[in-house]
């Protein structure tokens, strides 16, 4: 049974699940140096993704389109080749507590000149199914709570077990966009107007708040305005909650909230305002979750939690929930945001047929490296992992490209820039070449068995989705991966992993005694990962590129020769 999941809107992607196994997920932003959050505006992208794996649309048994905005149904205006078509889909959320797996069935999916029928499940359904089906709880058949908090919805708590899932409650009346909206009103990303929405601001704020301190007086201001405008019995709050199914009024109410906050906080430093707002939201989330878990204590099974939705990328909130003692285990997939929605769409159909079973999957299921024409000006030579470790030990960063790309927004060693973490200047250097702000952190990628010695808690974290503190005795040894508040967005790698980055870390440890490197994404500013070594060469900001056994080294600038040719990396 082949199921093809399609996410058409931002973070567009195509995923294929065959007999319970993820075959691939191709995110639009990871093709052809596309911009971040790229949508699918032409269905030829679906045909192309299938063709790269030797498949024709007729080889697919079921197509599934992720739902989107709409009370009863959503609509998509797309191209099929050169012709415009309109497709209908399920709404953003299910219409009743038991309706998570209710689908809208449609026809008119035009692929390669042929019409196909399709199903569509609510957008939140894909978040629930992708989070649970990839979790360790699914493998053992254990039930789990599932928190879904997306940009335009309140945090929704579900309960999932093998035979089905249902909505338990909304935790509190705050849409997920509130975090990014805070950055549009305070700090370095402040804007004069309300337009030109930037989806990336929320992640940057997580770094920026390390510059500030939590001020309880500021927290009190946010608590009072939260009651007045969102949660209380006031007319203003009641009107806000009544309009929650309309995205524009909800977002307008959030902007009004921050404008009222700014009046009362005009004399406060923006970094303290944002740090305090983060603390307010984190406390609200943990408190509401604790109350909900107690309210639903009658539900049987282990106390497990899956986290999904765009807010699942907030590593500090994830850590706060894990450390609260409410759950036996907490799982966040590497694609909690909409980058996992195509997988979720396919999983929704799988679950509708088989119940909430586990999905066999690998995080390295993205696009394979392409063969590309390399520009002149680069030397090419075979390079072993030991030799590459020596390059890194000499304090030279390397673009590291291998195998298939990782899923989700984090670079996890397949499309990474790696560097020694022993120099305090390396973080600034990497931020400069990536055109990033000085306060942005660079993540450590570390051998799993040694992580507890360097970080607290240092528990296994293969997808960089929790917060860790760097232990005091290591801060001077690896300063490039220590954030301003002493934290680190850690990725751990098992020594037994077959991925090439594990072999490199082992060789680097043998050479230096240090089991970690700096890790940041290999990409053009504002775009997805490099699809091939040629794109990294054209970018040209890092002088060494390792691509599946070959080291490319930028040669000193010389006058081009008329006979200069191009290399092909195979």
UniProtKB/TrEMBL annotation:
<protein>
    <submittedName>
        <fullName>Nodulation protein NodU</fullName>
    </submittedName>
</protein>
<feature type="domain" description="Carbamoyltransferase C-terminal">
    <location>
        <begin position="389"/>
        <end position="537"/>
    </location>
</feature>
<dbReference type="InterPro" id="IPR048155">
    <property type="entry name" value="Nodul_NodU"/>
</dbReference>
<dbReference type="Pfam" id="PF02543">
    <property type="entry name" value="Carbam_trans_N"/>
</dbReference>
<comment type="similarity">
    <text>Belongs to the NodU/CmcH family.</text>
</comment>
<dbReference type="InterPro" id="IPR031730">
    <property type="entry name" value="Carbam_trans_C"/>
</dbReference>
<dbReference type="InterPro" id="IPR051338">
    <property type="entry name" value="NodU/CmcH_Carbamoyltrnsfr"/>
</dbReference>
<dbReference type="GO" id="GO:0003824">
    <property type="term" value="F:catalytic activity"/>
</dbReference>
<dbReference type="Pfam" id="PF16861">
    <property type="entry name" value="Carbam_trans_C"/>
</dbReference>
<dbReference type="InterPro" id="IPR038152">
    <property type="entry name" value="Carbam_trans_C_sf"/>
</dbReference>
<dbReference type="InterPro" id="IPR043129">
    <property type="entry name" value="ATPase_NBD"/>
</dbReference>
<feature type="domain" description="Carbamoyltransferase">
    <location>
        <begin position="2"/>
        <end position="347"/>
    </location>
</feature>
<dbReference type="InterPro" id="IPR003696">
    <property type="entry name" value="Carbtransf_dom"/>
</dbReference>
């Amino acid at each position: 049974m082949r199921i093809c999941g399609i996410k058409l809107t931002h973070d567009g992607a195509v995923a294929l699940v065959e007999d319970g196994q993820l075959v691939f997920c191709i995110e639009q932003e990871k093709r052809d140096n596309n911009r971040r959050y790229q949508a699918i505006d032409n269905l030829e992208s679906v045909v192309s993704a299938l063709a790269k794996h030797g498949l024709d649309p007729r080889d697919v048994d079921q197509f599934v389109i992720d739902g989107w905005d709409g009370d009863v149904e959503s609509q998509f205006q797309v191209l099929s080749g050169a012709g415009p078509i309109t497709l209908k889909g399920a709404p953003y959320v299910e219409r009743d507590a038991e309706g998570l797996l209710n689908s809208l069935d449609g026809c008119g999916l035009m692929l390669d000149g042929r019409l196909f029928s399709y199903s569509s499940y609510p957008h939140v359904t894909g978040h629930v199914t992708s989070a649970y089906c990839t979790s360790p709880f699914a493998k053992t058949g254990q039930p789990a709570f599932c928190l879904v908090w997306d940009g335009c919805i309140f945090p929704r708590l579900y309960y999932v077990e093998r035979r089905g899932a249902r909505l338990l409650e909304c935790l509190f009346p705050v849409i997920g966009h509130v975090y990014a909206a805070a950055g549009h009103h305070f700090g370095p990303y402040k804007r004069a107007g309300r337009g030109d929405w930037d989806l990336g601001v929320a992640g940057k704020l997580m770094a920026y708040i390390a510059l500030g301190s939590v001020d309880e007086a500021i927290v009190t201001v946010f608590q009072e305005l939260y009651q007045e405008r969102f949660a209380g019995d006031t007319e203003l709050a009641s009107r806000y909650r009544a309009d929650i199914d309309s995205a524009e009024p909800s977002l307008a109410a959030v902007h009004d909230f921050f404008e009222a906050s700014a009046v009362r906080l005009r004399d406060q430093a923006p970094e303290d305002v944002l740090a305090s707002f983060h603390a307010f939201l984190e406390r609200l989330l943990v408190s509401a979750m604790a109350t909900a878990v107690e309210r639903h204590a009658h539900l049987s099974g282990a106390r497990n939690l899956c986290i999904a939705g765009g807010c699942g990328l907030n590593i500090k909130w994830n850590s706060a929930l894990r450390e609260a003692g409410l759950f036996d285990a907490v799982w966040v997939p590497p694609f909690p945001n909409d980058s996992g929605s195509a997988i979720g769409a396919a999983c929704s159909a799988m679950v509708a047929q088989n119940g909430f079973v586990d999905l066999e999957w690998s995080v390295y299921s993205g696009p394979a490296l392409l063969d590309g024409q390399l520009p002149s000006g680069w030397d090419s030579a075979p390079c072993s992992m030991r030799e590459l470790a020596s390059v890194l030990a000499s304090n030279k960063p390397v673009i590291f490209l291998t195998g298939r790309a990782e899923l989700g927004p984090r670079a996890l060693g397949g499309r990474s820039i790696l560097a020694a973490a022993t120099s305090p200047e390396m973080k600034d250097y990497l931020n400069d070449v990536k055109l990033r702000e000085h306060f942005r952190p660079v993540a450590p990628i570390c051998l799993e068995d040694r992580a507890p010695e360097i970080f607290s808690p240092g528990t296994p974290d293969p997808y960089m989705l929790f917060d860790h503190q760097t232990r005091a005795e290591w801060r001077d040894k690896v300063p490039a991966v220590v954030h301003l508040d002493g934290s680190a967005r850690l990725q751990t790698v098992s020594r037994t992993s077959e991925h090439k980055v594990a072999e490199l870390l082992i060789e680097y440890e043998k050479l230096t005694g240090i089991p970690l490197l700096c890790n940041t994404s290999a990409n053009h500013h504002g775009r997805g990962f490099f699809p091939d070594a040629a794109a990294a060469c054209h970018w040209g900001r890092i002088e060494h590129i390792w691509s599946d056994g070959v080291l490319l080294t930028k040669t000193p600038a010389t006058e081009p020769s008329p006979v200069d040719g191009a290399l092909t990396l195979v």
